[in-house]
Design goal:
With 110 residues, this protein is of the alpha+beta class. The chain is 34% helix and 34% strand. The protein contains two helices and six strands. A six-stranded antiparallel sheet has the order 1-2-3-4-5-6, covered by helices on one side. The radius of gyration is 13 Å and the shape is globular.
Length: 110
């Protein structure tokens, strides 16, 4: 994959994550504020002030996630973002992370 293709896919993924969280917020499932700065998506949980940071790393062709539960790296495998250590898919992992940090069960989906 070229760097341009990676950046397009990473941008589309960050957009999808932000849109999913906006939908969950509108449904009163979770109270978060999302902000974007370039290739970085910051998700702040209003009630407890904790954050999840997701950013793209073009040289590595990875998305990196930093959360209370740790740091995770995701690469494209067969059209999905997969954790390089655990093999977990990105949206599944984000659902677990947001549920843990937000205090209510949610499903983050594209």
């Amino acid at each position: 994959m070229t760097e341009s293709e990676f950046l397009d896919q990473a941008e589309a993924t960050l957009d999808a994550i932000e849109a999913s969280l906006d939908r969950l917020c509108a449904q009163d499932m979770v109270d978060v504020e999302c902000s974007r700065s370039g290739n970085v998506l910051e998700i702040e949980f209003v009630e407890n002030g904790s954050k999840v940071i997701i950013n793209s790393q073009a040289p590595m062709q990875e998305l990196w996630v930093a959360a209370r539960s740790g740091g995770f790296h995701y690469r494209q495998v067969a059209g999905k973002w997969v954790d390089t250590r655990r093999g977990t898919e990105l949206y599944q992992a984000l659902s677990e992370i947001v549920t843990e940090q937000g205090g209510a069960p949610v499903v983050v989906a594209p």
